[in-house]
Amino acid sequence: METIPISECVKIGYLQKPHGIQGGVILNFREEYEDSIAASSVFFIEIDGLLVPFFISEEGVRFRSGNTVFLKFDWVDSGDAAREICGCSVFLKRDEIIQTEEEPAEDGLKGFLVFDSAIGEVGQVKEVDDFSGNIVLTIDHKGSELLIPFNEELIDSIDKKGRKIHLNLPEGLIES
After folding, report:
1. Is the N or the C terminus of the chain less surrounded, counting Cβ atoms within 10 Å?
2. Which of 96, 128, 147 is the last residue of a domain?
3. CA distance 111 to 12
4. Where does residue 11 rank: exposed (0-12), middle (13-18), buried (19+ CB within 10 A)?
5. CA distance 13 to 97
6. Is the pTM of the predicted complex or chain greater than 0.85?
7. Average pLDDT taken over every residue of the chain
8. Which residues pair with 28 in a beta bridge?
9. What DSSP line would sit under 89-146, residue for residue?
10. What's 158's domain CATH number?
């Protein structure tokens, strides 16, 4: 059986906790993916580094507050089974993401080249993380990982077609 490459998917959140005794779980998700979650019948859960498909059962999807949703998957039919997958990251296929804004979702920035106005090319975006609402880019910079905050104050421009991000980074953030 062939697995789906993680590069073809977008991380939308994580399974926060079990709900009830019949295998329901609570997904904590980033709000820009609400429409995509509502439309999806299959979610990919990262287990031991592999993306495993989980299909929505008839009880399906029930949105709760702001960024949480109740999910009921086929074959997850007990509280114990639900607990086993809690804490795992949840993904959707990239081509199933419904874009609600003109700007690319932050996860869509993987693979973009990052440039600084002072030093030129910094490196390629390997990962995009959200730390309590603070977006951080993990960049491959000369063979090592570099974490760069990604906020409006630092962005000069984003070239979607050319897959380039131009930033004005604070002096001293990058050691040459």
Report:
1. N
2. 96
3. 18
4. buried
5. 13
6. no
7. 87
8. 14, 68
9. EEEEEGGG----SSSPPGGGGTT-EEEETTTEEEEEEEEEEEETTEEEEEEEETTEEE
10. 2.30.30.240
> Into how many domains does the chain fold?
2
- Alpha helices by DSSP H, listed for the chain, are 34-39, 79-85
Q: What is the pLDDT of residues 3-18, one digit of tens each?
A: 788 888 999 999 999 9
pLDDT tens digit sequence for 22-49: 999 999 998 889 899 999 999 999 999 8
Range of the domain at 55: 6-96
Q: Is residue 66 situated within a structural domain?
A: yes
Q: Which residue is it, tokens 């604070």?
A: 170
Q: Give residue 81's Cα distance to chain centre.
A: 24
Please report which helix (H) or strand (E) contains residue 130, including its range: strand 120-131
Strands 68-73 and 144-149: unpaired
Q: Are residues 151 and 129 in the same domain?
A: yes
Beta strands in 41-106 (DSSP E): 42-47, 50-63, 68-73, 89-93
Q: Is the pLDDT of residue 108 over 80?
A: no
Any idea which residue has 């995009």 for tokens? Answer: 128
Residue with tokens 């000069």: 156
| pLDDT at 145 > cutoff 70 | yes
- The number of angstroms, rounded, from the C-alpha of 90 to the middle of its chain's C-alpha atoms is 8
CB atoms within 10 A of CB 37: 21
Does residue 175 belong to any structural domain of this protein? no
